[in-house]
Specification:
Elements (H helix, E strand, L loop, with lengths): L7 H18 L3 H7 L4 H9 L18 H14 L1 H21 L2 H12 L5 E4 L15 E5 L2 E12 L6 E7 L9 E7 L5 E5 L11 E12 L3 E2 L5 H37 L1 E2 L2 E2 L4 H29 L5 H26 L10 H8 L9 H13 L6
Parallel strand pairs: 1-4
Antiparallel strand pairs: 2-3, 3-7, 4-5, 5-8, 6-7, 9-10
Helix pairs in contact: 1-4, 4-5, 4-7, 5-6, 5-7, 7-8, 7-9, 8-9, 9-10, 9-11
Bound molecules: flavin-adenine dinucleotide (FAD).
Flavin-adenine dinucleotide binds next to strand 1, strand 3 and helix 11.
Length: 385
């Protein structure tokens, strides 16, 4: 049976988050962007609503809901503010869910509940100055020294680098073993030799912290290893399977916001003695946006349906991420076309949405990398080797 209807629970989550976003996020997102300031107070309110931990089990202070609810929250946050949606993706999809999958009982109890409640931040340090798409080419090392590992190297472009209480960091425990020589570690904020360095003047996601992590002899106890030694690449890829999903859902939300702005404008703006929405080429722009948003949402929910069953979903998640990240850029571009010159100013939030959306085809694996993963799934031939 194929059922496109949301359950009562899913509709209730959608309604609650939609109302919260309309009241607390959409009206303020412009100011947060200008001030390059993350609204911690609003994040705490989201935590109090139980929304940050939607997809985290109740044993870890989450709401224990399914992956469709997880996507719904990401979509609604993406509607109001991509920086906030990004924090949701990183804290929950990249960090909390990865600790839940790979962590020891102690690690899960220590790190997951405060993140699910919105009282703690985490980050995921995979990318380096010289390794992005080719993550296995990282240079960071973790040298064993008794019960400790000594971490050295730099991580680049790390969301929440400066504000995280815990960082999942990947480093080579065996420099000669390629991807099989990578190990994941949980590094606490106060660890000496572990220093964040903020990055400013991004074109988008300005309300969200991004930075570098400098590891200069940071000593981490062996109990802080996340997953087995040498399994760090698998840890990293499992995290991306979750994060690409919420990125895709967030793109659907931002595209929907762009469409709603364009629709309102097309009904009101008069040119050639009629609303511009009455001109066929403007309707074409609107129709394409509507169709592509629906397509994106279906791809996201299909991936979520597989995730709910614990079924393999890398191919479907990559398709959702690839399509939705490209689609939201087209949607913002086309919505700006509908608004004409007025879209080019801060009077409408489209200019921010346009800037914020650009990241989506770049991070969590570029569009080219998504295509190579999908191609490999279809052909059984890896273009990476
Ligand atoms: C705002 C922001 C936040 C980020 N947050 C995080 C984070 O929290 N954690 C983290 O670890 N990283 C993060 N990143 C890093 C991001 O994931 C990387 O930038 C991304 O993976 C691409 O790597 P790169 O920038 O090194 O580009 P490169 O890998 O150098 O790629 C450059 C170009 O070459 C293409 N290319 C590379 N290899 C191939 C290939 N085999 N076939 C075809 N084309 C190829 C790419 O598609 C791209 O077009 C963030 C980046 C930004 C900008």
């Amino acid at each position: 049976m194929v059922d496109f209807a949301l359950t009562e629970e899913q509709m209730a989550v959608q309604k609650m988050v939609r109302e919260f976003v309309a009241k607390e996020i959409t009206p303020n997102a412009k100011q947060w962007d200008i001030e390059e300031k993350f609204p911690l107070n609003v994040w705490h309110k989201l935590g109090d609503l139980g929304v940050i931990g939607t997809a985290i089990p109740e044993d870890y202070e989450g709401s224990g809901m399914d992956y469709i609810c997880h996507a719904i929250v990401a979509e609604e946050l993406g509607y109001g503010c991509s920086s906030m949606r990004g924090s949701y993706s990183v804290n929950i999809s990249l960090v909390a869910k990865t600790i839940l999958k790979w962590g020891t009982a102690e690690q899960k109890q220590k790190y997951v509940p405060p993140i699910a409640l919105g009282r703690s931040f985490g980050c995921y340090g995979l990318t380096e100055p010289d390794s992005g798409s080719n993550a296995a080419g990282m240079k960071s090392t973790a040298e064993k020294d008794g019960d400790y590992y000594v971490l050295s190297g730099n991580k680049m472009w790390i969301t929440h680098a400066d504000v995280s209480d815990v960082s999942i960091v990947f480093a080579k425990t065996d420099k000669n073993a390629g991807a099989r020589g990578i190990t994941a570690f949980l590094v606490d904020k106060e660890t000496s030799g572990f220093t964040p360095q903020p990055i400013h003047e991004k074109i988008g996601l300005r309300a969200q912290d991004t930075g570098e992590l400098i590891m200069d002899g940071a000593r981490v106890h062996k109990d802080q290893m996340l997953g087995p030694e040498g399994k760090g690449f698998a840890v990293a890829m499992s995290a991306l399977d979750n994060a690409r999903y919420t990125v895709a859902a967030g793109c659907v939300g931002t595209a929907q916001a762009a469409l709603d702005i364009a629709k309102n404008y097309a009904r009101e703006r008069i040119q050639f003695d009629k609303p511009i929405g009455g001109h066929q080429l403007v309707q074409q722009l609107i129709a394409n946006m509507v169709m592509e948003i629906e397509m994106g949402r279906m791809l996201v929910w299909r991936a979520g349906w597989l995730k709910n069953q614990g079924a393999p979903n890398t191919r479907e998640t990559c398709m959702a991420k690839y399509f939705c990240s490209e689609m939201v850029n087209r949607a913002c571009f086309n919505a700006m076309q509908v608004l004409g010159g007025y879209s080019f100013s801060g009077e409408y939030p489209l200019e921010r949405m346009y800037r914020d959306s650009r990241i989506n085809t770049l991070y969590e694996g570029t569009s080219q990398i998504q295509q190579l993963i999908i191609g490999n799934a279809e052909l059984g031939i890896s273009a990476f080797v």
